Amino acid sequence: MSLKVCVDSSVVVKWFKKGEEHEGEALRLRDESLSSKTYPIMCEWVYLEVVRALVKAGYPKGKIVEAYKILKEMAELGFIKTVPVQELLEKAKELEIELNLYASDAVNLATAIINSENMLTEDKHLLQDNVRIYVENLGLKIMSLKNLTLR
Question: What mean pLDDT is predicted for residues 56-79?
Answer without folding.
Answer: 97
